[in-house]
Amino acid sequence: MKKDTNIWLGNNNTDKLFWDSQSQRSPHLVLIGGSGSGKTETLKVISMELKNKKVSTLIIDFHNDFTILADNLIKLDNTTIHPLEIQVGERPIDVTYKIAKIFAKIFSLGEIQEAIIREAIKTFYQDSKIKDLKKENSGNFKLLPFSHFKEILENNFERRKTESLLAKLSIVFDTDIFMDAKETSLPFNTMTTQVSVIQLKEFPTDEIKSMIAEIILNKLINYFYLKGQSKEGIELFCIIDEAHRVTYEGSPVDLLLRESRKYGVGVILASQRPTDFSETILANVGTIMSFQCSLAKDAKYLSNKSIRTRKMFYQVCIRKLFKKIKNHTN
Ligand SMILES: Nc1ncnc2c1ncn2[C@@H]1O[C@H](COP(=O)(O)OP(=O)(O)OP(=O)(O)O)[C@@H](O)[C@H]1O
Ligand SMILES: [Mg+2]
To test ligand 1's pocket by mutation, which of 11, 35, 41, 319 has the most ligand atoms within 8 angstroms of CB? Predict the structure, then answer.
């Protein structure tokens, strides 16, 4: 049986305002509003309300804003993430393109640099004794440690071709969560229950935080593919505040928005400007919640009749919501 997911957001003058992901064409939600307009606080309320409805949330937390809500606080300090890991059912060639794209977007690589990354990943798989890059992993691929990827970039290419690339990626090669990785040790079973918060604040740079977030999202998608389709409706919402870091065209978030509903996963994203979201994202969300926008052109864009979701726009009554958060947290 589908869970009740009707969430009370607050009041709009005298009207109670609800958001029910299951009554929309798509369960996904986007929050847009200028700095200080209340996005993060609203995400907290939504997460608490979902918890009351026994719907789990997985929160990717770039600033440790959600620690207080966590049933499972995932600090990642004893975790390793192997960016080149091929999950069961995945093909090495697909991982090659996906991961090269993530590197390229996050580190602003040029086309040639992205091509070098792809070649290096292919070599990495060959060195790991994977002969056919188009053959799915049936569970028997055993990869070399991720540190070998750095050795390939250093030794298999002319130095002049990789010098600037190695400089851009040096922070990756200084980050233990990747460099110590013989495999990925993420507790997906726990991460997808109750309110789980992945803390990213302690990682050194925005690029590393984004890279970890993107790899986790990639793996999450595959985790749900393997679990199979859900007949119970939405059982988990993946919440990403400051989502501009991970919302480019073709990103794992794009894929999550396209595919996750049938696996019982909804996505909630918040960012400051409409242009922070790719068109694919805006086309695939069922609801856009608009807060005060500092730029007139953003407000105009959001109120434009041509946006299909216009009738679902909410002007959230800030004061009532704030009271509600206080009651929950006291
Ligand atoms: N519902 C509310 N009622 C009253 N005050 C609120 C409410 N929501 C947020 N605030 C106040 O506004 C401040 C900023 O809110 P919040 O952090 O949610 O903004 P934001 O949209 O996430 O901003 P940013 O884009 O900079 O992260 C909060 O610290 C809080 O003091
Ligand atoms: Mg915020």
Answer: 41
Probe ligand 1: pick from 30, 40, 65, 271, max atoms within 8 Å of CB?
40
Q: In whole angstroms, what is the distance from residue 275 CA to residue 273 CA?
A: 5
Q: Tell me, using a 6 A CB cutoff, whether residue 318 lines ligand 1.
A: yes
For residue 10 and ligand 1, the question of a CB distance below 6 A is answered with no
pLDDT tens digits, 14-70: 788 888 888 888 999 999 998 998 999 999 999 999 999 999 999 999 999 999 999
Q: Hey, how many other C-beta atoms are within 10 angstroms of the C-beta on 86?
A: 23
- Helix, strand, or coil (residue 199): strand
For ligand 1, atom 16: residue with the closest CA: 38
How far apart are the CA of 109 and the centre of ligand 2, in A? 28
pLDDT digits (tens, 9 = 90+) for 216-263: 998 888 888 888 888 778 889 999 999 998 988 888 898 899 888 889
- Give the total residue count for the chain: 330
User: How far, in Å, CA of 69 to CA of 165, rounded?
Assistant: 39
- What is the β-pairing status of strands 6-12 and 15-20? antiparallel
For residues 14 and 292, give the distance between their C-alpha atoms in angstroms, rounded to a whole number: 20
Distance of CA 173 to the CA centre of its chain: 22
CATH number belonging to domain 6-74+187-329: 3.40.50.300
Q: Which ligand ends up closest to the CA of 61?
A: 2
Question: Separation of 149 CA from ligand 1 center, angstroms?
Answer: 42
Distances (CA, A) of 241 to 63, 250, 323: 9, 19, 21
State how far the Cα of 284 lies from the Cα of 10, in Å rounded to an integer. 25
Domain ranges for the chain: 6-74+187-329, 92-179
The rounded Å distance from CA 321 to ligand 1 centre is 10
160 contact partners, CB below 8 Å, separation of at least 6? none
- Output the residue whose Cα is nearest ligand 1's atom 30: 38
CA dihedral 327, 30, 220, 83 (to 10 degrees): -110
